[in-house]
Amino acid sequence: MTNNNLIKFRANITLINLKQRQQVERDLGTFPHRNAAINAVEEFKKHQLGEGWELANYRLTPAEMSQEIFTFFNKVQEREKLPKLKNRNIPLEFEDN
Q1: Which of 7, 54, 93, 94 could tie 83 with a disulfide, CB 3.0–4.6 Å?
Q2: Average pLDDT, the chain
Q3: What are the DSSP E strand ranges found in the chain?
Q4: Helix (H, G, I), strand (E, B), or coil: what is residue 6?
Q5: How confident is the model over 63-95, as pLDDT tens digits?
């Protein structure tokens, strides 16, 4: 099993505009690994902030596991006679028995 790209991450940012007293949340999407998500936030900060807007914070959340982990996990669950995962999404959802 490789260590690269086992978990995909979703990047969300919060923008604030102090003059207009506004706060906006934006979803930047899902990225193949944590560093790619951080790079997307940094690129947004450098190139796409509008006049008067500042990046207040960002949040990275696990979004999806790789097919490799999903298959391995379900094989273990089956061997232990436990419910298998429905899909690769995070948070985990299990099949009904």
Answers
A1: 94
A2: 90
A3: 7-17, 22-31, 53-65
A4: coil
A5: 999 999 999 999 999 999 999 999 998 888 898
| DSSP one-letter string for 57-71 | EEEEEEEEE-HHHHH
Q: How many residues does the chain have?
A: 97
How far apart are the C-alpha atoms of 30 and 40, rounded to whole Å?
10
Give the Cβ contact number of residue 6 at 10 Å: 13
Cβ–Cβ under 8 Å, residues 23 and 35: no
CA distance from start to end of the chain: 29
The helix/strand/coil state of 14 is strand
Instruction: Tell me the domains of the chain and their CATH numbers.
Output: 7-65 (3.10.20)
What's the token pair of residue 77? 């669950």
| The token pair that represents 50 in the structure block | 């509008």
* Token pair for 90: 């995070």
